[in-house]
């Protein structure tokens, strides 16, 4: 670089750094704006994503003069002032989520980044589209300094221009759930979830697998959450059946569950579809109650307690077995009763044999009772604990007499004497 160019470059830098310095005039120049997406410009249908854009000013001031009698303008001609940028959809199948943004001044040879959030349409077709970046700014139109005056008048021109930003919608499986059905899916049980899936995208998928992804805070847990589909080409429809269990703490309502399809593209690349959220209806739990009246027993007695159970839940309990927990003053060697299948609203009677301690206090006792059963998918379940009321009461009449040891001894003596008399009478004959 020769000495003259070095001097001119030095003067230019001084003029940019110290605008008040007199003597530098730019004969012409203007901003030259451009923009480009930073990073990838390929996106999947249905995705919401930030798009980083770099806005650049490549404008130059090719010729300037140095004149001590002139006032150096505050802004060079190639300075883009008060730059405002906004993003428009153009012909791209997107929704723009961000408002226009102010970038301030962009000198020539400089760039500034800006980010917009966009959401591509779920049914966007594969192809290349153009987003429109709208730039609004102003720049120096002219400067005027009258002879022998220390006043410089500057006028600015406003400009709006659009810059195309190419984006590509990738060829992907675009998952659509056409139907949701459940079978035997109730609170606290395991059941079936049937989903009818369709590929409304443009990708010819191979080795496709449908997978359930549980919601982090939901009560649904996939117990058999993967189904192999195989080829899943555009417009293909397939039915997938999954096993799902529901927490005992859930309520009978509809809960969210996520489904995706993992697959292999035609070029061998592995990919995953967009996530679809489905609403899964869950029925009420299987529940029981005791509908029989309280039983009464006597101290020192062996008795049979009869208990009637009713299924007040929303599904059938299979192979139900009821049991009681015998506690003092009760003992039992027969504390389990088979009830069989109980549909909603049905009842069944259980009989338990108990022995009551002869020193038992006369009052009502609460015995714990529960039912073990099988759900529709043959999983073992246990009901909530129920309270069975048994009253220990004083024996009356013959029953009371027979519970008295003296009476029992007298009766035995009479029976023995009668027996002895009968035997002697037969021998004498």
UniProtKB/TrEMBL annotation:
Keywords: Membrane, Transmembrane, Transmembrane helix
Keyword Transferase: no
Signal peptide positions on this chain: none
CARDB domain span: 287-359
Entry's transmembrane regions: 406-423
Entry keyword annotation includes Zinc: no
InterPro entries: CARDB, Ig-like_fold
The protein, known as: S-layer protein
Native source species: Methanofollis aquaemaris
């Amino acid at each position: 670089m020769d000495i003259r160019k070095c001097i001119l470059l030095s003067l230019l830098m001084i003029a940019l750094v110290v605008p008040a310095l007199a003597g530098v005039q730019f004969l012409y120049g203007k901003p030259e704006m451009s923009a480009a997406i930073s990073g990838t410009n390929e996106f999947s249908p249905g995705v919401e994503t930030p798009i980083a854009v770099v806005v650049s000013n490549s404008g130059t001031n090719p010729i300037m003069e140095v004149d001590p009698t002139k006032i150096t303008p505050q802004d060079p001609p190639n300075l883009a002032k008060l730059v405002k940028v906004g993003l428009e959809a153009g012909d791209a199948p997107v929704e723009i989520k961000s408002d226009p943004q102010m970038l301030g001044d962009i000198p020539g040879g400089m760039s500034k980044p800006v980010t917009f959030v966009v959401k591509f349409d779920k049914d966007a077709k594969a192809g290349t589209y153009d987003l429109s970046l709208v730039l609004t700014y102003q720049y120096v139109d002219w400067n005027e300094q009258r002879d022998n005056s220390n006043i410089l008048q500057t006028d600015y021109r406003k400009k709006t221009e659009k810059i195309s930003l190419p984006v590509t919608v990738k060829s992907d499986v675009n998952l659509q759930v056409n139907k949701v059905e459940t079978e035997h899916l109730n609170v606290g049980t395991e059941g079936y979830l049937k989903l009818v899936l369709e590929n409304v995208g443009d990708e010819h998928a191979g080795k496709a697998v449908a997978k359930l992804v549980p919601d982090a805070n939901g009560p649904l847990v996939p117990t058999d959450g993967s189904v192999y589909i195989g080829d899943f080409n555009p417009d293909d429809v397939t039915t997938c059946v999954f096993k799902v269990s529901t927490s005992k703490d859930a309520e009978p309502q509809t809960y969210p569950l996520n489904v995706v399809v993992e697959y292999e593209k035609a070029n061998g690349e592995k990919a995953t579809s967009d996530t679809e959220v489905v609403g899964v209806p869950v029925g009420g739990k299987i529940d029981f109650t005791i509908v029989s009246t309280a039983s009464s027993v006597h101290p020192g007695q062996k008795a049979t307690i009869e208990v009637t159970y009713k299924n007040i839940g929303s599904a059938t309990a299979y192979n139900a077995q009821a049991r009681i927990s015998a506690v003092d003053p009760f003992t039992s060697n027969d504390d389990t009763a088979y009830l069989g299948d109980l549909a909603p609203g049905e009842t069944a009677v259980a009989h338990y044999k108990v022995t009551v301690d002869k020193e038992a206090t006369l009052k009502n006792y609460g015995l714990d009772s529960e039912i073990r059963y099988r759900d529709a998918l043959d999983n073992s379940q246990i009901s909530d604990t129920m309270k069975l009321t048994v009253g220990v009461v004083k024996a009356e009449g013959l029953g009371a007499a027979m519970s008295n040891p003296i009476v029992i001894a007298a009766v035995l003596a009479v029976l023995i004497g009668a027996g002895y008399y009968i035997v002697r009478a037969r021998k004498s004959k």
